[in-house]
Write a structure and sequence with these properties.
Helix content is 35%, strand content 35%. By secondary structure, the chain is of the alpha+beta class.
Length: 172
């Protein structure tokens, strides 16, 4: 299995939109109403919004490819691009998704290690992320990877307010 993580650029905008939409839908469709899923997806992953996110200097997107096929993606934020005020010594993993057909192959762990290295290279002291309180598989995965519960914040899924747990991992 040939696995590569590559930087995502504006030239990859259409592929980024497709993987963003598909993986979010695949991950959360069974736990949310079709109306709320549609409302969220139509707003969150427009080409204009993704282009703006890609153009933010303190945010970076990466594709993880297996045998040249995009299997998932990662979005990280630093400094003023973080979605919560966590300080300049913090590093956010905003999105980390793997297509269902590629799950359980270690790709999530691979992307987490990649993010960890970026954070360390930028002299960050901790990594944090938000994860939906009902995403039990992800919660267990992040705990196994050394993240601990540190708080929570609201997340709007269409017209439904949901709770995301904020999980943090200190870097050594």
């Amino acid at each position: 299995m040939d696995t590569v993580i590559k930087n995502c650029t504006l030239e990859d905008l259409r592929e980024l939109q497709i993987i963003s939409y598909d993986t979010f839908y695949e991950t959360f469709k069974d736990q949310n109403s079709p109306e709320n899923m549609s409302a969220y997806l139509e707003k969150a992953f427009t080409l204009e919004k993704l282009e703006k996110e890609l153009s933010q200097p303190s945010s970076h997107f990466f594709f993880i490819c297996v045998n040249r096929e995009i299997a998932g993606y990662l979005k990280v934020n630093m400094n003023d691009a973080q979605t919560e005020e966590m300080g300049d010594d913090a590093f956010e993993i905003e999105r980390i998704y793997v297509k269902g057909t590629f799950k359980n192959q270690g790709l999530g762990k691979h992307m987490l290690k990649f993010a960890h290295n970026i954070a360390a290279n930028h002299k960050k002291k901790r990594i944090w992320l938000g994860v939906w309180e009902k995403n039990y598989h992800a919660l267990a995965f992040y705990k196994k990877m050394g993240f601990v519960l540190a708080g929570e914040h609201s997340f709007l899924m269409g017209d439904e307010e949901q709770t995301d747990y904020i999980m943090v991992k200190e870097l050594r």
